[in-house]
């Protein structure tokens, strides 16, 4: 067999590298947050956001665009409500995310968001990749639900990282 043939065949061989989910650096005293605490924090944050959105709907003049009586189909993209919800999220949680790496729910349950090396997550990375992408998917009917299911199920991996954690290169640890 010629050397050229061997080199060409190696290009199509499967990779031989061992790939791990994440590995904490030596000396890092990071302990991953439990799935139950993360679920509880997400529920607290969701209830807060739901209450704020309900208050905004009661006060807003554009709320009639969102009602079924206005002839809105369930299959139409929901740009305005999604942007409103994301804006309310940024307003209500932005300060804590920027200063402590926590939402109100995470603060209440003693967990925080960090980089895998223990460093602080920049606010734009947090809002854009960790939270913004998921909100953007909800604009398109059914795509948002599929994203949410995949995102939620990924927490059952060994690293306990959801899809939004992987996209933003973050982990959730005990505070």
Write the layout of secondary structure elements.
Elements: H1 3-11, H2 35-59, H3 79-100, H4 104-109, E1 111-114, H5 123-137, H6 143-153, H7 163-168, E2 171-174
Antiparallel strand pairs: 1-2
Helix percent band:
40-55%
How much strand? Answer: under 5%
Please identify the structural class as seen in this structure: mainly alpha
Largest sheet: 2 strands, antiparallel
How do the strands line up in the largest sheet? 1-2
Tally of domains: 1
Basic shape? globular
Termini gap: 60 Å
Mean pLDDT: 84
Low-confidence stretches: none
**How many strand elements?**
2
H/E series: HHHHEHHHE
Return Rg in Å.
21 Å
- Total of helices: 7
Short overview:
This protein has 175 residues and is mostly helical. It has helices at residues 3-11, 35-59, 79-100, 104-109, 123-137, 143-153, 163-168, and strands spanning 111-114, 171-174. Strands 1-2 form a two-stranded antiparallel sheet.
Notable traits:
175 residues; 7 helices; 54% helix
Structure description:
This protein is mainly alpha-helical and 175 residues long. The protein has one domain (27-67, 75-174). The chain is built from seven helices and two strands; from the N terminus they run ααααβαααβ. It has helices at 3-11, 35-59, 79-100, 104-109, 123-137, 143-153, 163-168; strands at residues 111-114, 171-174. It has a two-stranded antiparallel sheet with strand order 1-2. Helix 3 (79-100) packs antiparallel against helix 5 (123-137) and helix 5 crosses helix 6 (143-153). The radius of gyration is 21 Å and the shape is globular. The model has no long low-confidence stretch (mean pLDDT 84).
